[in-house]
RNA sequence: GCGCCAGUGGCGGAAUGGUAGACGCGCUGGUCUUAGGAACCAGUGGGCAACCGUGGGGGUUCGAGUCCCUCCUGGCGCACCA
């Protein structure tokens, strides 16, 4: 018996499940049920990603408590999930807001700290003014908060970080092992990690006992350097400019309306070119990123578009060091180096090696690898999260608690109406006497990013009631998750964090597992047409009716305009409520529709016709099995065997839309040929194969027909029955199809040619042409080549 | 700009380099009516035909929707990453 850990991304308990959840969980359920019937030891748990801001917002809005709100939602969503007939291991259920769970997470935090993977530093952080909290780099999209869409501000705060950068290289290389992950997700992670190979160069500063480090991927173009540019947040800026000047520069940068406009300010300092000692002016420039590399660049205008634009604007020298025409500047392609005494005549790769070696010899630079990936900032200034197990003393020093001092419980009695973090305002909770030193101390009031919660829940499922986070032996036995199914929106955040966690825990606990998820399947979203009134009000699909060929709003009879199909969203009101669908069409039809119209990894458009025809199919199968007689044909067994084989293959490939086609094909055949199976053994096979997809109908029918639970074991396939003896052989002339002939497999080429040449169509085509060659792909095709 | 993915009937989609369009939706005609959110039968890529058809153009091959090159279009991701 082999284990199969099948997992769907656990939901945030927002109150109600939506169609996206239904699709996600139906896909996983089909898979899990299939493997169970195959006799595998299936783990298929479900839980709740229960911490997070919406609970706090709801608490304020509805005058409730985040915990009460969350627990109530969980209860409701659980009952909704139960209606979907999902075969879940409910005894493994967990919720990240349970004391049990977050206490373990506090233990992990302590482990991380003791291993040097958690640390605190002052950092320029992304501040989401709406949520009043810090966001990780990954959580800022286009300068806006991933959840709120508010423009993110920069603030300096003392924050906890996880050292994900320790694993940058392994996170990158590990992607190669993940052969069952979508390429797309791997590419996104690769780009996010952003590895660049180059060199670090130290520039001396004239007349100051100071130096400036620069990371570059193009040390070969060093002779073309004509200026230096640094970020306004670079540490040298504070040294040589006063606050007033710095603020003015920042202001000017912020006021620029064109994001790509290059703006620079001279600092007054100059760097020494590391080879020819020329003076290079140092600018503060808005296009230099402070969180990448060293926050400084050398400008080589002839061979970099940005530097070129900057040099033109500030009238800086442009020195060509790669052979090209002047009108090709900036020339960024590979070429032969010129005006570079050390590397003249070389190509880029060789020049890079030679220059870097030179720097290393002279001790003015070295080979360097740079990653875009930053350490993961995990502090959140919010109440409804896992408290960070740290206390601070009055002198500003802090102590990470010991495991024996856990848990740090979230207080229930909080005032959420105040500004900022409710924990910070809760003096009774915050102020303590340190049990070790007996000194006055204050608890850390930041809580952990909820992405921490979801970085290890798949491990916790294995032993959800254990006093420690997990049992290492069981982790090695049951991880990785064999099939992980969820939305692609987690391609970077959740999936990268989880991979980091798995590797960190592996190193701390000496586990064998390297990657948390062996196969990743990203299901597509569900879309629906959008409807709006002429006043631009969105209208829900169920409120739109057709009236003499026109769409109108049911209640007000306003004219409705139909818009394109878009992802179901509350804001556009193009949502279909699972509860209503389930009560109108039933669970089996809903499950069928979730997989029928498109492959599971593509988007699925919700249509009334689609759900209706799914329902019709269910009724058709039920009707078929009411026919109380038995009549078989010679090839019936064969057809059913093919059906079993196809369903199995298609479930394993996640080609679930083809499973639906297989079902139609089978019943089209049975009905057309007037074959009735009644309670024949063949019916058993069919019902078992239908079971993963439509479990309710399959169970009901099997009870009715067999008075017994026959859904126990997936049928063994008799390969002999899959072999086709007679085939329809295509005959081509010059590679073009002319006709097909019925024949037995294993025909002799010369025999079959005799009968082919007798066919009129062939005779006519060939008439006086000479046959020069016969391509016979045995049992597949015959191609006649003429001159 | 860079990267990835995808372009197949009216629509959703099938096709280990070997009969393009499985299966479904829709549509057309018909049947049955205990008028249904039915069901059943026949048909449904284009063209009267020979033939032509998988975004355009090249190529490889006996044979290309599938492989290679190139261009176009659309989607997604990243984006001043030095």
Describe this structure in words.
- This protein has 24 helices and 35 strands.
- The mean pLDDT is 91.
- It is 35% helix and 23% strand.
- The relative contact order is 0.10.
- Helix 2 packs across helix 3 (66-83), helix 16 (578-596) packs across helix 17 and helix 18 (636-652) packs parallel to helix 20.
- The protein is globular.
- Strands 10, 11, 12, 13, 14, 15 and 16 form a seven-stranded mixed β-sheet that branches. A four-stranded parallel β-sheet has the order 2-1-25-26, covered by helices on one side. Strands 6-5-9-17 form a four-stranded antiparallel β-sheet.
- It is α+β, with helices and mostly antiparallel strands and 787 residues long.
- It binds one RNA strand of 82 nucleotides through helix 6, strand 11, strand 15, helix 9 and helix 16.
Task: Identify the notable features of this structure and list them briefly.
alpha+beta, 24 helices, seven-stranded mixed sheet, 787 residues, RNA-binding, four-stranded parallel sheet
Tell me, rounded to a whole number, the average pLDDT. 91
Tally the helices: what do you get? 24
The count of DSSP E runs of length 2 or more, i.e. the number of strands, is 35
What structural class do you assign from the helix and strand content?
alpha+beta
What's the story with the biggest beta sheet?
7 strands, mixed
Determine the fraction of residues in helical runs and give it as a percent range.
25-40%
Shape: globular
- How far apart the termini lie comes to 60 Å
> How much is the radius of gyration in Å?
34 Å
Strand content: 15-25%
**Low-confidence sequence ranges:** none
């Amino acid at each position: 018996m082999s284990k199969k850990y099948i997992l769907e991304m656990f939901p945030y308990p927002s109150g109600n499940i939506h169609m996206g959840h239904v699709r996600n969980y139906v896909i996983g359920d089909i898979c899990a049920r299939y493997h169970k019937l195959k006799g595998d030891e299936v783990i298929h748990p479900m839980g709740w990603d229960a911490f997070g801001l919406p609970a706090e917002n709801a608490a304020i809005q509805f005058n409730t408590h985040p915990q009460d709100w969350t627990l109530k939602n969980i209860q409701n969503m659980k009952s909704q999930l139960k209606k979907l007939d999902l075969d879940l291991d409910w005894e493994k259920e967990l919720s990240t807001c349970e004391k049990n769970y977050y206490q373990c997470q506090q233990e992990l935090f302590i482990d991380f700290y003791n291993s040097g993977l958690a640390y605190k530093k002052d950092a320029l952080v992304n501040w989401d003014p709406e949520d009043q909290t810090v966001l990780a780099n990954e959580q800022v999209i286009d300068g806006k908060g991933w959840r709120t869409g508010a423009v993110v501000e920069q603030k300096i705060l003392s924050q906890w970080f996880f050292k994900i950068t320790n694993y940058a290289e392994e996170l990158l290389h590990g992607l190669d092992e993940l052969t069952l992950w979508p390429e797309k997700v791997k590419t996104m992670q690769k780009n996010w990690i952003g590895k660049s190979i180059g060199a670090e160069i130290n520039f001396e500063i004239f007349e100051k006992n100071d130096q400036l480090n620069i990371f570059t991927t193009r040390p070969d173009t060093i002779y073309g350097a004509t200026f230096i540019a640094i970020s306004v947040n670079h540490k040298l800026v504070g040294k040589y400019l006063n606050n007033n000047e710095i603020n003015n520069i920042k202001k000017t940068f912020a006021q620029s309306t064109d994001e790509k406009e290059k703006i620079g300010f001279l600092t007054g300092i100059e760097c020494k070119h590391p080879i020819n000692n020329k003076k290079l002016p140092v600018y503060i420039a808005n296009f230099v990123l402070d969180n990448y590399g060293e926050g400084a660049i050398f400008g080589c205008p002839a061979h970099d578009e940005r530097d070129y634009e900057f040099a033109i604007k500030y009238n800086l020298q442009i020195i060509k060091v790669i052979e090209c025409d002047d009108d090709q500047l900036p020339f960024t392609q590979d070429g032969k180096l010129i005006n570079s005494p050390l590397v003249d005549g070389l190509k880029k790769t060789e020049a890079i090696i030679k220059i870097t070696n030179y720097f290393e010899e002279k001790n003015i630079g070295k080979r360097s690898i740079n990653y875009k990936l930053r350490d993961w900032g995990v502090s959140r200034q919010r109440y409804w999260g896992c408290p960070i197990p740290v206390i601070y003393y009055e002198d500003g020093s802090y102590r990470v608690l010991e495991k024996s001092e856990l848990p740090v419980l979230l207080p229930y009695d909080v005032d959420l109406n105040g500004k900022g973090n409710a924990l910070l305002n809760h003096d009774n909770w915050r102020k303590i006497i340190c049990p070790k030193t007996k000194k006055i101390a204050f608890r850390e009031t930041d809580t952990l990013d909820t992405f921490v919660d979801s970085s290890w829940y798949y491990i916790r499922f294995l032993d959800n009631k254990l006093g420690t986070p997990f049992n290492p032996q069981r982790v090695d036995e049951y991880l990785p998750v064999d099939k992980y199914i969820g939305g692609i929106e987690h391609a970077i955040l959740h999936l990268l964090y989880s991979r980091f966690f798995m590797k960190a825990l592996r190193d701390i606990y000496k586990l064998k597992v390297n990657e948390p998820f062996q196969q990743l399947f990203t299901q597509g979203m569900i879309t629906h047409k959008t409807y709006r009134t002429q006043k631009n009000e969105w209208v829900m699909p169920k409120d739109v009716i057709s009236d003499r060929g026109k769409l109108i709003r049911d209640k007000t009879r306003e004219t409705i305009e139909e818009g394109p199909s878009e992802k179901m969203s509350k804001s556009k009101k193009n949502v279909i409520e699972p509860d209503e669908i389930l009560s109108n069409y039933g669970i089996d039809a809903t499950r069928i529709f979730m997989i029928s119209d498109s492959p599971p990894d593509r988007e699925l458009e919700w249509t009334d016709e689609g759900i209706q025809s799914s329902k019709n199919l269910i009724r058709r199968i039920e009707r078929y099995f009411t026919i109380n007689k038995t009549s078989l044909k010679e090839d019936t067994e064969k057809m059913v065997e093919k059906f079993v084989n196809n369903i199995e293959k298609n479930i394993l490939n996640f080609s679930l839309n083809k499973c639906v086609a297989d079902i139609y094909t089978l019943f089209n055949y049975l009905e057309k040929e007037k074959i009735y199976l009644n309670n024949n053994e063949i019916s058993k096979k069919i019902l078992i194969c239908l079971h993963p997809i439509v479990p309710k109908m399959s169970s009901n029918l099997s009870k009715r027909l067999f008075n017994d639970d026959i859904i126990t074991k997936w049928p063994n396939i008799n390969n002999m029955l899959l072999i086709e003896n007679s085939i329809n052989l295509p005959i081509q002339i010059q590679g073009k199809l002319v006709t097909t002939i019925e024949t037995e497999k294993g025909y002799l080429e010369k025999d079959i040619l005799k009968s082919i040449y007798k066919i009129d169509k062939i005779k006519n085509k060939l008439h006086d042409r000479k046959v020069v060659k016969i391509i016979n792909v045995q049992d597949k095709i015959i191609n006649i080549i003429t001159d």
